[in-house]
Amino acid sequence: MLRWGILGPGRIADRALAPAMRAAGHDLACVGSSSLTRAQRFGARHGARRARGAYEEVLEAPDVDAVYVSLPNDLHEAWAIAALEAGKHVLCEKPLALDAAGAQRMAAVAARTGRVLMEGIMSRFHPRTDALLAMVRAREIGSVLRVDACFDGAAPSVDDYRWTRSRGGGAILDLGVYAISAIRWLIGEEPHDIRGLMIADREGVDEVASAVIDLSAGGLGTARVSFGGARTQHISVVGTKGSLDVPHAFTVGVDREAVLLRDGEPCGSWQADPYERMVTGFAEAVRGDAAVLPPTDALATALILDRWRATASAPAAR
């Protein structure tokens, strides 16, 4: 059992992570927020033993083994490093950092302190993802010719930090991290190159973005993300002997059956809580088992996201 602290009682922490910690048999020792009232309300809902009005107080608690960083993107690096330096293991909301340089700094601190640092991409822990990876790597659809990953999400509210570029805003960082991670896992190697396009708002924040990826094993990958479009998300893998399709690829919940299609027909279905499985996988890494998602994985994704944003066409104001 891990004793958890939460930095930032946000929506995902409220709806998914705190319930997952409880379901996995862990203890929510402390929740911290910039608002003590908000922390107290969150703590009352989820049975936290203490609520604090400052993040530092969570890190100072001797009965906190691990911290979930559920803060805006631009605060991930600083508070994850502070937690690692305080001797805590860290599960950090995606993206791990604003760029690869930040992810590298975080990974270096984790290595120096001997603490687990993991980027919280829950879709990797769904059993359907395990089945998809196994089928692709067993070459059940032959050699991979094309991988397409798409995530069109709801537009954030007008005052959301994701509309501020300096705070890590934009669809590429918010949603593209899922698409790029999935493509990397599926091909099992790092891509050769990536070229991006985007449509940005007047502040230069990418609302719609696409990328074409030169896969190291041959073939092409495409990643497509957007804010405010129809809420669609999928992964398609086309091989020389068939295809695999994953509807609701990234945020399938515990209450929804997760289906995998082969050549357009269902070939398997699963119902599981990927957040609970992620918390369990993180705890196994803390106990000394190999981490499913070591910080080097997040760093590799961050390098590609950096390249995507760097090669995207000049922002065109709408």
Poorly predicted spans: none
Number of helices: 9
Q: Biggest sheet, strands in spatial order?
A: 8-9-10-7-11-12-13-14
Summed up, the domain count is 2
Q: Quick one: biggest sheet?
A: 8 strands, mixed
**CATH architecture of the largest domain, please?**
2-Layer Sandwich
CATH superfamily of the largest domain: Dihydrodipicolinate Reductase, domain 2
For the termini, the CA-CA separation is: 50 Å
Instruction: Give a count of the beta strands, DSSP E runs of length 2 or more.
Output: 14
Instruction: Give helix and strand order, one letter per element, not per position.
Output: EHEHEHEHEHEHEHEEEEEEEHH
Radius of gyration over C-alpha positions, nearest whole angstrom = 19 Å
Structural class: alpha/beta
The pLDDT mean sits at: 94
Return the CATH topology of the largest domain: Dihydrodipicolinate Reductase, domain 2
* Beta-strand content estimate: 25-35%
Gross geometry: globular
What would CATH call the class of the largest domain?
Alpha Beta
Query: Roughly what percent helix?
Result: 25-40%
